[in-house]
């Protein structure tokens, strides 16, 4: 037998051809193919969640040549941001602003308008068109970059294997050498008020109300609450914001900017109850009753509304993920514990986005997604957590990056301040949109930029310049000596830098 | 004359402002990266749980928890050869398949099988 095995290959081939009686068939492969018990090949990377963190990681992984699968249960990619967050809210914010402006701000511009009516259904349709266009765009990018997309709910079977309950029925499983958890976050419910997304709503319900409520109470004066409160206030609702802290915009917003934002929003008709806590709520009657009290107690009051928006924050979303099957742990606030390279306790499982540490912002998740793939592929990634911008898309917009004045004071860090108001900016003047200012904080000795805070038109776009300056350690003089086009709102940014290191020209 | 010009130029350059922002050049991956788990920069506690990551301090401690077709044991390394017992296979166990009765051995390969395996089935077509 051994001798026969040693026959030269060509001889074997010729003898085989002459003697064989095997029929020549068109497709004999199936007869010879060995069957395997495993359901699918092992992927280089499996990502659970197709939100901003997950889909960006999937595309980047595809670009880096990894075999990647992305599991998403919503049936549409883009996660909260694209489907029920940033994108639809910006559509409503933009269109409600236009409606409000046409109603209240045309006479001084020499424009006479006739009967202006709101078509809420049409406004919602415009929002849905934007959303569906963007989510389909991601599916295209998946195909372009060779990403396998599974529509279903993923949960860990063990450290390497994920079971997927498919949306269309049935079940499959995928194995990954690396796994990324990017399951995002959900709105934190308010104890005692059951969310029905009709009368007691989260930001998701606030994006698709069927009619403009007469009275809307917003619990929580953070960015989400103020943005959605602005939308419905512009469309005609009487909006009251109840906030536990003594300032709106959350703790990251500079106090001076926050006060100005509150003043301007109040001018637009939004009422504020700061330093106030909601004790209990009752949604059983025709209107919803909220018992509120001052944060310190002693000033009880009853508020009523047709709709209550619960915007007290978001919490990591890991339910049904089977973290325990992979031996993973979450901290006391439900965040998956990771190290500086996004690794969990099991080093091949990484975690990015809202479901872990850091601010719950889409652009932070994007940065982490790219960095996590670079850690997998190259062993090195970069995210600067000190330079993540925040934007509130009200009108005027509020945007900031770096440290604020109260943080610098608390840490005893010396600083100098420079400000420039939009009322002295030529473009803002021509636009008849002059509310707000640019504020810069810099090191008094080196002049290095420490933080930038803007309230005003286009603040969200302008903050990119401050972010770049901060990332590269620029001084305010570096900014001020950079030529800015005239007439632009960005000149206010340059002038604020001039005011910080020397003096502004136009103020 | 030239000395004056040089002096003038030097004075002019001395007054020049040096930007704080610098061109850092093409990004390169550092040659040495410490991959031992460190707390995440945005971690609220600034620390990692005690049992975080595969932090085996020695090969020996790694072997304690390593798995390969079941748990790996350190017994061979830790025991003297005299205490490991005989090297023969225990009764009823065999080192090689060919020591088993003929019916458990592999079937001899036919020429047709060899050819099909070597060519991936290609010679069967046409």
UniProtKB/TrEMBL annotation, chain A:
GO terms for cellular component: mitochondrial matrix; oxoglutarate dehydrogenase complex; pyruvate dehydrogenase complex. One of its GO terms (molecular function) is flavin adenine dinucleotide binding. Residues 43-369 form the FAD/NAD(P)-binding domain. The active site is at residue 486. Binds 1 FAD per subunit. It catalyses: N(6)-[(R)-dihydrolipoyl]-L-lysyl-[protein] + NAD(+) = N(6)-[(R)-lipoyl]-L-lysyl-[protein] + NADH + H(+). Keywords: Disulfide bond, FAD, Flavoprotein, NAD, Nucleotide-binding, Oxidoreductase, Redox-active center. InterPro entries: Class-I_Pyr_Nuc-Dis_Oxidored (IPR050151), FAD/NAD-bd_sf (IPR036188), FAD/NAD-binding_dom (IPR023753), FAD/NAD-linked_Rdtase_dimer_sf (IPR016156), Lipoamide_DH (IPR006258), Pyr_nuc-diS_OxRdtase (IPR001100), Pyr_nucl-diS_OxRdtase_dimer (IPR004099), Pyr_OxRdtase_I_AS (IPR012999). It comes from the Eukaryota. Gene3D superfamilies: 3.30.390.30, FAD/NAD(P)-binding domain (3.50.50.60). This is Dihydrolipoyl dehydrogenase. It comes from Xylaria multiplex.
Automatic annotation (TrEMBL), chain B:
Keywords: Mitochondrion. Residues 31-93 are annotated as: Disordered. Its main location: mitochondrion. It comes from the Eukaryota. Belongs to the alpha-ketoglutarate dehydrogenase component 4 family. Residues 44-68 have a biased composition (Polar residues). It is found in: Mitochondrion. This is Ribosomal protein S36, mitochondrial. PANTHER family: 28S RIBOSOMAL PROTEIN S36, MITOCHONDRIAL, ALPHA-KETOGLUTARATE DEHYDROGENASE COMPONENT 4. InterPro entries: Kgd4/YMR-31. GO terms for biological process: 2-oxoglutarate metabolic process. GO terms for molecular function: oxoglutarate dehydrogenase (succinyl-transferring) activity. GO terms for cellular component: mitochondrion. Pfam families: Kgd4-YMR31 (PF10937).
